[in-house]
Amino acid sequence: MIEVEVSFKEKLATVRYDPEKVRLEEILKRYAGTRYRVAPSHPLAAVVRRDGVEVRARADDLRTPAAVLVDFLPRGGSRFTLAPEATIVDPAAVPGLKAAGSAEPVIREGSSAEDPVLPRSLRFPLEREGRLQPGGYSWQVRFRFALAPKAGAASEVEGTIRAPLVLLEGAGARPSPGSQPALPALVGGSFELAFGHLCDATGCVEHLRKSLEGLDALVGVRPRFTAGEAWADLLARAGEAVEVSGLRERLRERSIEALAIVPRGFRQFQILLERGAHCPVCRDRSIAAALSVPWASGVAAEGDRLRILSFTREPDLAALLDALDRAGVPARALWLVPEGVPAPPAAAPPAPRSPAALLPGGSRAQPAIRFDLDHECEAGAGLVDLLEWEVWPSGVALERDRLGGPAVLATMRERRHADLVPALRSARSGGLHPRRIRLSGFGDLRLQIEFEHLCGEVEYSKPPERKREGKEGGDGKEEKPFVPQPLRPASSSPARMAIEKALAGVRWMKEGSYREYHTRPEFDGPRSLALALEVKAGEEVPLDPLFDALAQAGFPPTALRVSRLFPGLSFGALLPGDVEITDAGGAMVSLRSLGRPGRPLALVFTVVKLTQKDKKKYEAEPRDYWRLRETIRAFVDRADFAVVSSNPEDSLPEVAGFLKRAGIEVPILQDPSGQARSVLNAQLTPPPHIYLFDGEGRLRYAGDPHDRWDRPDQPHRDYLARALERVLGGKVEDNHAAFYNSPKCDCSHPGCKCPKCGCGPSCRCAIGHCKVGF
């Protein structure tokens, strides 16, 4: 609380006010032309709360031996396991004063420094270095301690706090008429934020408060709800510049979207835009985007920065940030600099990082993520470097798409997922915002979306039904206590209702194919959402509408992971033309060139021997290939066949010798880099793996040649022969495969929960690949 003495007609009046609730200038407007002075009613203290400890920092009255005091107050029976330590980061932050030494412990009367549950205090002595300048100041103090709750393990806590100090006019003297008073300068203005969502449901406002902790430029937050709209006032510390784009990104990292950011109460300020890219086109786009905002009256270039001029003192800075995003040139930093505050130094460029090792020969047959750009410049090259550092791409390239625009194309390794949120945040920090993000070639697409916080009630698991008691006395086993687990937001949760409404507006998600193993969007955890849908061959999935819908609803995701539900080429997809393997003469040939036009092509991935530590030792027997040999002989005049060896343990002569003993005479090729095996998801397991393509080169069957592969004299079903008959007859099922039989699974069954060449635990091959997830 602050006291203000006001001299009015030779009399004094005292006004008390809370600087977080009202500005001093507003109080003193009614006393225009009078003399007044400002005095704190008691030492001002800053407060932060960390893991059960309240930390307070303040400065002693300067009429006594000056010092900065930091108090540590444990709550709820917590105890210190490491005594609090603290240092002043900026010893000369106050003109005329400096920190004179290290922290000294303060022993309270009747207490002991060894008692782990009592409050602790540290004192930093101060000494004068000259004339004190009236005004509001603060020292930044870094602290550290270790704390153990009443029941639980100890944890180490680090943080910072600012110790405020108000210096008055000297020795009770009042300022002369017309002079500027010595104001506390704790609050220099505020930012009015409009949110996509903010309510008084469980934890929503508290989550906002916690999300803003640690931002030195802010001293408080005041949420308010008006006519169904969600707003909050963020109180800004006087005398400091505020990085607005960083504030917005900080909120987005915690699933909070600020739709409007309007400064209020600042006298004079300037708006500085720090661009991420330095090419002339990016500069022109930044200027055009700034001038497109209704409140902007002009733009002035200041080196690598742009100063945005405004004809209003209350511009919507979120509108400027959105305009820059739409132009593909997001701000690396957007500063609001109050009058009299020096402009902050330019942000350092991102540190270079070593790219991850790319899988040799990434293929367009693999699922791809396309980031469409507005133009080619260093920012696009920066996105290529950024994606190469990720672990999921098999190849990254900057190219022009079929419409002539530049794009960054990243193909995905098999059995990988790509979390796009961190990659997009890094791209934005580098000054690049893709115009569109498209997914292609996924076949069966899986998405997992996560949020930092979802307000409202949560559904919990229910205890299992008790079994009927048997004989008297039971079995003697002691029942474990049931611990409810959070399952999903309740149907009454405001967050769940807002997200479901947003998803209903995304066309491709609303109209997606969800059948059999495809799962509609559903919450699979208290803060996560999952879905799986079928994507037809050649169809692309745009992610921009999904990101925009969630942001407008007020819940930007903290993670959005995309992957194939099943690895390998999807049914109906074309045989890739950019995958090359080695023929018997050592020449590189394309997979697509192996078959003759208009004829089906069957690729047989063969393993002769296996001695890897994680697999059983295996050596192929010619008799195991008897049924496959008969099928090839029956169809060789109507279809083409080729054997591919991807096993690094098998040499080409060894494979050729084995096939000669088995009586199979077809071309033999080698896949030394594993590129073909990776694209088709062929496994290094004993049964030969068959991939059958029709006359157009589209995949129609993937699986074993027949059942009971290790007992070829007792086959029940010849899968390859049946698939060839259907392909030659032009018969295809609605999942684009040649056939499927029963839910027990042939590998072409659409309900198979496994990779295309494998089956579930109740099916034939039991190769252990039935779980494909994140």
Class per helix and strand makeup: alpha+beta
Q: Nearest-angstrom radius of gyration?
A: 34 Å
Main beta-sheet annotation: 6 strands, antiparallel
Tally of alpha and pi helices:
14
What is the number of strand segments?
A: 42
- Quote the distance from N terminus to C terminus: 53 Å
* Rough outline: elongated
What percent of residues adopt helix (DSSP H or I)? 10-25%
Strand proportion: 25-35%
- Oligomeric status of the shown chains? single chain
Mean pLDDT: 78
Unreliable spans are 35-42, 168-185, 353-361, 741-774
Describe this structure in words.
This protein is an alpha+beta fold and 774 residues long. It contains 14 helices and 42 strands. The strands form eleven sheets. Strands 4, 5, 6, 8, 9 and 10 form a six-stranded antiparallel β-sheet that branches. Strands 16-21-18-20-19 form a five-stranded antiparallel β-sheet. Strands 23-24-22-26-32 form a five-stranded antiparallel β-sheet. Helix 4 crosses helix 5 and helix 8 packs antiparallel against helix 10 (544-553). The radius of gyration is 34 Å and the shape is elongated. Mean pLDDT is 78; it is low at 35-42, 168-185, 353-361 and 741-774.
Summarize the helices and strands and which ones pair or pack.
Layout: E1 2-8, E2 11-17, H1 24-28, E3 35-40, E4 45-50, E5 53-59, E6 67-74, E7 79-88, E8 97-99, E9 104-105, E10 120-128, E11 135-148, E12 155-167, E13 187-195, H2 204-212, E14 218-226, E15 229-237, E16 242-243, H3 244-252, E17 258-264, E18 269-275, H4 280-291, E19 296-302, E20 305-310, H5 317-326, E21 331-338, E22 368-372, H6 378-389, E23 393-400, E24 406-412, E25 418-419, H7 420-429, E26 436-440, E27 444-450, E28 458-460, E29 486-489, H8 494-504, H9 507-510, E30 522-525, E31 528-534, E32 540-542, H10 544-553, E33 559-564, E34 580-582, E35 588-590, E36 601-605, E37 609-610, E38 618-619, H11 626-635, E39 640-645, H12 652-662, E40 668-670, H13 675-680, E41 689-693, E42 699-703, H14 719-728
Parallel strand pairs: 36-39, 39-40
Antiparallel strand pairs: 1-2, 1-3, 4-5, 5-6, 6-10, 7-11, 8-10, 9-10, 11-12, 13-15, 13-17, 14-15, 16-21, 18-20, 18-21, 19-20, 22-24, 22-26, 23-24, 25-33, 26-32, 27-31, 27-33, 28-29, 30-31, 34-35, 36-41, 37-38, 41-42
Helix pairs in contact: 4-5, 8-10
